[in-house]
Each structure stands twice: as C-alpha cells, then as structure tokens.
Amino acid sequence: MKHSSQAGLLAVFSLFGLASSCGSSNGTASGDGGVPDSTSGQDGASRDSTAPRDGHVAHGDANADAGRDTGGTGDAWSPLPATSATPELWYWHHSYLSPTSSSEPAHSEMLIDQAAAAGYTGLAFWDSALTFANRPGWSTANLGTVVTYAMSKGMKVLAAGAPVGYSNDMLQGDPNLAEGARIVGGQFKVAGGALSAVNTLAPLTNPGFESGMTAWFGTGDARTGVDTTTAHSGSASGVIQGNPSATDNARFTQSMTLTPWRLYHLQLWFKTSGFSGNSLNVEVLDFTTMSSTTLTRMYESPTISTPTQDWTVFDYAFNSQDSTKVTLYIGVWGAFSGTVWIDDVLAEETSLVNVLRRSGTPLRVYSGSTTYTEGTDYAMVVDPALAATPGTYDPWHTPPVVTIPSGSKLTSGQTVSMDYYTVVPQIGYEVSSCLTDPAVQTWNAANAKALAAVFPKATGVFLGYDEMRQGDSCEECRAKSTSAGALLASNVGQTVATLDGVWGAGTTYYFWDDMFSPYHNAVANYYDVEGDLSGSWEGLPPGTVIMNWNLGNLTKSLAFFSGKDTSVTPAQPHAMQQIIAGYYDSGDGATSGTQEMSAAMGIPGVVGVMYTSWQDDYTQLQSYANAVKAAWPAYRASVP
Q1: In the chain, what is the greatest distance between 2 CA atoms, to the nearest angstrom?
Q2: What is residue 175's DSSP assignment?
Q3: Contact present, 252 and 270 (Cβ < 8 Å)
Q4: Are 465 and 166 in contact (CB under 8 A)?
Q5: Which residues make Cβ contacts (< 8 Å) with residue 152, sequence separation at least 6?
Q6: Nearest Cα to Cα of residue 344 among 279, 410, 268
Q7: 479-500 b/e with 16+ CB inside 10 Å = b?
Q8: Which backbone phi and psi does 542 adopt, to 5 degrees?
Q9: Are 259 and 349 in contact (CB under 8 A)?
Q10: Alpha carbon 31 to chain centroid, angstroms
C-alpha cells in the first residue's frame, strides 16, 4: 500500500494502510534471494500495481443494499442485477479530518469539487479520523461536514470499520490487542538479581569485513567487495558499487542456524554516497523448511534519507518461526546509482522486545517440570517501551529487565526457559490486531456507534481487512484449532454480526480483495501468518462487494469473485459485485482505465471503478473517468 502523510505520527498509521515502496505478498521469495515474490501475483506490501511483486460501493444507490436479499432472513446470496448503463465512479479520498486541522474541511471540499466536476459519483475515505471517531474527546464535526458536503454534490459516501491488518490506529487504545508471535523456550540465566537472556546464536563470521573477501561473497555478485579506505570501525567495510543500467544483483550473504520460535536481533551500519534509484534491503530467507518455497523471515529496507548519508545504524528484530537454516542477505537488487558501504553486522538472539500481556498471550517461566510464579519468583514482566508512542511499535529497542525479588525460588546461576508472545512489526511499522480477543469486537462496536452518528442511515461500510501480515499465532487464536483461513472467515462473521448490531441487518459490506483471494494474499505462509489463509473467502457475507486492487492478476481475481472459477478449493461459488480499485499512481489515467476495463471483459458483476492514489495524485481523475466511461459500453455488451 502507498500512504502519504496526514499529521505527525498519524501519517504513519492511517486507516486501511500505510506507505511502503515494495515488498512481498505472501512471504515467499525468488530462489536467488531476490526481493520476495508472491506466488499469487501482486505485491501485498507496496500496493503498487506496476511492481511485479507483490473496498466498492453498492450498485446503484451506495446507501442501499448491493445484491443482498434483505426481504427475508438477510443471509441468502442474490443473483447479480443487470449491468448499469453507466459505471459507478469512485475515488479514494485522502484527508485527515482532525478536529484541530487548519486545512480541513476546506481541503476535502476542494477535492470533492474536483471529483464531482470529473463525473465521480462517490468517495471512500482514507482517513484516520474515522478510526479515531470513538476516542474520548474526539470531535467528528469535520468528518460530518465533509460527509454532508459530498452528499450535497450528489456523491455517495462509505463509512469504515474493522481495520484488520493495518491496526495501528485502533491499537492506540490498547497496544496489547496486537497479534502476538510466540516465543518458545527462550533461555535466561539468573545473574545479578535479574533474568539475563542467553544468546544461543553463533556469531557471524567476518562481521566487520576485516578478514577481506571471506564469508559474505557466496553468491559471487560482481559489484560487491571490501573497501579498506572506509570503515565504521576497524579498517574495512563491505562496499556495493552502483550501476544505473545493471541487470544483476549486489548482495552480501551469510548462513545462520536458528532455533525455531525465538526472537532475533539484526544490527548493521551503512553509509551511502550519491545513492538513488533503488533501496538497500536486509532479508532473512529460509530455503529449506518447505520444498520449492522460500520463506521470508525478515524483509526490511533501511531508511536512506539523503543520497549521501553518513554512517547510520539499522536495527530490527524478527521471529524465526519454524526455521532452522536461513540465509542473511544485505544488498541492492538490480540497478542503482552511487555507492553503499556496510559494516559491523551483528546477529544475536534477544528477548522480550515488545512483549504482549493479555489473556491470549500468556507468559511462563519454567525449568523442567517446575513453573515459577510471576510477581513472587520474578518481577512482573512488562515492556515499558511497547508502543511508547501510541500506535507505534518499534522494530527494536533495548529489552526490558526482569528482576528477581527477595524470597524467589530462583537461584543465582540457574538457567530457566520462558514462553511468551511479542509484536513483530512488518515492513517497518504494520501491526495486525488479534482475530479472537473479544475486546477487538468491543472496539468495533464502539467505533461503529460513533460513525453511525455521522453517516446517513443505510450507509455501506468499507471494512479494512487488508494485508494482514500476522495471524493465528497467539494462544487465544491457536486454541481454536483451525486453519488461518477458517479463523479469518470466523472473524469476519463475528465482525459483521457486531456491526449489524449497530448499522442494522442488511447493511452492505465492502472488502478489499487481497485477504480473500487465492490469487492475491489468501495463501499459505503469508508473511508471519501461521498456516494457510485459503478458505478465508467462506466468511464473506451475502451481499459482499469486493474492491479489487489485484491489478497484476486482475482477470483471474475478478473471475474468482464472480463465482466462475471452478479450480479453487474450497470453492467460491457466489457472484459478487466488484469495483476495480485502479489507477494506482500509474501517471497515465487513460491507459490505466482502458487496460483495467479490458481485463474485466466477459466477467459479470463489475459495477465500476475507484480511482486509487497513495501519493495524493488526483491529476488523472478526469482522464481515468473518461477512459472507463468510453470502455463501459463494450464491457456491458460482453456480460450477460
């Protein structure tokens, strides 16, 4: 997903998604340790449809039901209505309708005027103000003003809910509702009146490149080497030379042997000169655990703020999951300009960074058959740095210290084991909420009640299930003893029931396609989701409308949600209405609109498009709309 700033830290954590340039859709990667690629086609991290790696509104009246049979029980799928003579034209409205904003609602009204003049019929909000609506003391006055203004221009509006995937805004209220990654058997030694974490990881070879061309050069990448004139410490560093026309990669690699389900810390120092045209990536890849599948245990890009940047430290923690043999990659894949130096690389086992404390993430300290008592044998375990800035989870910070009180049964020199759960942010920032904890549904209900006071009755609700990179890993979720896909499907059912209690039975819900499509992110081993997300689509309620942004595999994805794809197990037999969430900052609205409509030919249920920009680029609104309208008669003729 692309995301641009709103206000301060809220720029990083906004409704439905956040910025990232590129990443992996399902945590798999190409066999040479390249940038992780999705087996399903589109990148789940970038939301950039032009990268080869990895929400709608009701047909007709957006504030009415779309294909849902509400005359009876409200739980039956209905046939698709006839294709309208004109397409619905939606746009992704980026704003931050804070009660203290100096630019709102004027900014939003100007954008609405621009969209209305171009013929657009509705908007969906990309705005943290919707997620904050139920915060104590938060005023929704600006939001209400903009909703009313849009409707006065003849435009439809969507409410929002359930930010599952990009849950950071929601988690500002309770950071412990995040999904927890399990740590099993972490080792601690009683020393100096505290539990001291034991680092079981063997040190890296030649971490500072002082031993020349050893350990790091197994791939034989020609543009990597050792520089004895530049160093962060000592007298040498690894160097990566740029080439703006290169087609090869430039990477340092080294294998590591991990213990499954432990927390690890990576640190390195990097320096740049004239760097541009690409990103520096740090990856931990597992080529051995699953046959013919590469698992990504970590994929991050250190921040390069300026082309020429002095020595900067990069720190990140990751969970090994079930991996034992992994390869660390540090480098640049493909062409770039300038030079990068790497030095003082550290890999170590760590502990308790972002430890979670709730009923679904229990903590246990034990030795053999003896379990020790928290608060008596060791102090209460809490990480004061957990979301110290609300909604922000650091990928690394100094672990908390667990002290030993007087009278403890633990003795100096003793080694004990600890099981616990931590937050592991993905792509630098993203954290998902737990799918099972009842407090999440309590939040959903409170948020819906706040929004229902602002939006008109019978409003459709756009749910934020999107790029959920953690799931089915905390004890509460795993106790369900079901697949990740079934767990997500169950959660959708619970959320719909919760929101129906506020918005009313028969409310139409809109979903991004990715977490419910086998051609997108509903796959096995998607980032840190444990297990297989296949079958998640079985939780979609009757009347669902899909916002389909799988532009790199659009025809298959549209066909899947049309109910015409018989190749997938479990089956998806329902005919759903769909909006193509298109454009995606291509810079050419006319071509994007034409190509997207071409991909939809012959597939029933497409009712329109949504102009989707993650860079606040609204310059192509008119050309995109014109192209879609021009292609619409041919699309209409191609479907029953």
Answers
A1: 81
A2: G
A3: no
A4: no
A5: none
A6: 268
A7: eeebbbbbbbbbbbebbbebbb
A8: -55, 140
A9: yes
A10: 23
The 8 Å CB, 24+ separation contacts for 195-198 are: 195/365, 195/378, 195/402, 195/403, 195/404, 195/416, 195/418, 197/349, 197/350, 197/351, 197/352, 197/399, 198/349, 198/415
- CA 485 → CA 120, 374, 482, 565, distances in Å? 35, 35, 8, 19
Task: Say what the alpha-carbon torsion angle 635, 636, 639, 640 is, to the nearest 10 degrees.
Answer: -170
CA 320 to chain centre: 19
C-alpha span between 365 and 146 (Å, rounded): 53
pLDDT of 69 reads: 35
Cα 57 from Cα 66, distance rounded (Å)? 8
Please state the pTM of the whole predicted model: 0.89
Helices and strands: H and E segment counts in the chain: 9, 25
Map tokens 């599948």 to a residue.
293
What HEC string does 226-255 produce? EECCCCCCCCCEEEEEEECCCCCEEEEEEE
CB-side neighbour CA atoms (13 Å) of 366: 10
395 neighbors 428 (Cβ within 8 angstroms): yes
Listed residue (189, 8, 59, 11) closest to 579, CA to CA: 59
Q: 459 is written with which tokens?
A: 């409003």
Classify residue 117 by its DSSP letter: H
Tens of pLDDT along 538-572? 999 999 999 999 999 999 999 999 999 999 999 99
Short-list 259, 265, 255, 418, CA closest to 323: 259
Determine which helix (DSSP H) or strand (DSSP E) holds 125, and give its type and residue range. strand 122-126
Q: At 636, which helix (H) or strand (E)?
A: helix 621-638
In 236-352, beta strands by DSSP E: 237-243, 249-257, 263-276, 281-290, 293-300, 309-319, 325-333, 336-350
Taking 90 as the threshold, does the pLDDT of residue 474 lie above it? Answer: yes
Q: What is the mean pLDDT of the chain?
A: 90
Specify the DSSP element, H or E, that contains 503: helix 484-503
Q: Which residues touch 462 (CB under 8 Å, ≥6 apart)?
A: 16, 55, 57, 124, 125, 158, 159, 160, 161, 509, 510, 511, 547
Mean pLDDT of 26-40: 38
Rounded CA-CA distance 218/256 in Å is 14
Degrees (nearest 5) of the Cα angle 229, 235, 238?
70
Would you list the DSSP string of 571-591?
------EEEEEEETT-S-HHH
**Edge-to-edge strand order for the sheet containing 224-227?**
224-227, 237-243, 336-350, 263-276, 309-319
Separation CA 369–CA 472 (nearest Å): 27
* pLDDT tens digits along 571-592: 999 999 999 999 999 999 999 9
Pairing of strands 415-422, 181-191: antiparallel
- Residue 202 near residue 254 (C-beta atoms within 8 A): no
DSSP-assigned beta bridge partners for residue 447: none
Encoded tokens for 84 = 């309208």
Q: Phi and psi at residue 472, in whole multiples of 5°?
A: 55, 40
Which residues, at least 6 apart from 354, have a Cβ–Cβ distance to it below 8 Å?
317, 383, 385, 386, 393, 394, 422, 423, 424, 425
Residues in the chain: 640
Report the distance separating Cα 172 and Cα 187, nearest Å: 31
pLDDT of residue 56: 27
**Beta pairing class for 470-471 and 528-529:** parallel
